[in-house]
Specification:
The protein is built from eleven helices and 13 strands. By secondary structure, the protein is an alpha+beta fold. The chain has two domains: about 70 residues, Roll (Nuclear Transport Factor 2, Chain: A), CATH 3.10.450; about 170 residues, no CATH class. The strands form four sheets. A five-stranded mixed sheet has the order 7-8-9-12-13.
Length: about 325
């Protein structure tokens, strides 16, 4: 919600009263914020001016916050509280019966504190469903966006057609793989709690811009290798009646093995120059689709992952499935 920093509060035809907020950046104020009141006559000649400092502004806020007001012609009262899209979502989730509870909790937060801190605090007060409601909405939207991107990939010319979908513009890129990389880097929750930090691969000459370097929870380097969803994973061998890795997949596996070898060779240099810890690095290959796999194809992929040391093959459909499981977790959290 954008804050009107300059506003006319009153105009009698003879006297005009204005308010002006200063020292605000991106709708967030710091301790230097000031609130200016001033009045002029109808010709713009000043009548008076007064400035409130941050402590005086807080006193005014507390006074106003003690007075209930009726908003939007509803029977439910509210107070002068800073709101945002997250708070609106929270209030919607709580429904009217719990509105007063959340309003009383909101009073203890200064206006410049971040919403995430608010949500964490509320969770500590055993209102975990508030945090879950917001993240359920976030993850649900992003899973839907991934499904839309996959549909555009199937249709072809995703780099052009993505421009017709406003909600997908944030992932736009000149190369299809980069589009999906942008989605992955915006949604690192798809890897669960395995990783705590992403490193910039462009700073290390060994890797390409398309590689995602991740730091695990125990502080070690892993690599995410992205390929396009349209790449086939398995191919059928008629002579032996079985599936084997498709040449597309074999190529990226070979590339991953090369990376593992180079990481071993340059381990000491990389650790000293880039402050990384490299011991038995793992590589996740995100490639292809498996939503239509038959049982023998699923078995083949399972066997392949089991026998590839330090390499795991993950499909884009696996990401969607994980997103669905995470959504169920948040739904259970809210229901409980």
């Amino acid at each position: 919600m954008s804050v009107p920093y300059h506003r006319e509060l009153f105009n009698s035809g003879k006297v005009r009263l204005f308010v002006n907020l200063s020292n605000i950046k991106n709708d967030v104020a710091d301790e230097t914020m000031t609130l200016h009141f001033y009045a002029t006559d109808n010709n713009g000649i000043p009548i008076f001016t007064e400035t409130l400092q941050i402590d005086q502004i807080r006193d005014l806020y507390r006074h106003l916050n003690a007075i209930s007001v009726i908003k939007d012609e509803t029977s439910q009262s509210a107070k002068f509280i800073e709101t945002s899209d997250e708070i609106s979502l929270i209030l919607e989730q709580l429904k009217e019966s719990d509105l007063q509870t959340i309003l009383s909790l909101l009073e203890k937060f200064e206006s410049q504190e971040k919403i995430r801190g608010l949500l964490e605090s509320l969770s500590n007060l055993e209102i975990e469903n508030l945090h879950g409601a917001y993240h359920h909405k976030l993850i649900s939207t992003e899973v839907q966006n991934l499904e839309k991107l996959l549909a555009l990939e199937i249709e072809g010319s995703i780099t052009k057609t993505i421009g017709k979908h406003e909600e997908l513009l944030k992932y736009s890129a000149g190369q299809p793989e980069k589009i999906f990389q942008n989605w992955i880097e915006s949604n690192l929750w798809v890897f669960g709690i395995e990783y705590v930090k992403k490193h910039d691969a462009r700073k290390i000459a060994l890797f390409s811009e398309g590689d995602i370097l991740m730091e695990s929870v125990d502080g070690y380097l892993d690599l995410i290798e992205l390929k396009r969803p349209i790449h086939s994973i398995l191919k059928y061998d008629d002579s032996h009646n079985c599936y084997y890795p498709h040449p597309n997949l074999s190529k990226v596996i070979g590339q991953s093995l090369f990376y593992l070898q180079k990481l071993s060779e340059y381990k000491l240099n990389l650790e000293s120059e880039y402050d990384l810890k490299i011991i038995m690095p793992r590589i996740k290959i995100i490639v292809g689709r498996n939503f239509d796999f038959k049982e023998d194809q699923k078995d083949c992929l399972r066997m392949l992952n089991s026998n590839l040391k330090s390499i795991q093959i993950i499909t884009y459909d696996d990401l969607i499935v994980f997103g669905g499981l995470l959504l169920k977790t948040y739904e259970n959290q809210v229901d409980s």
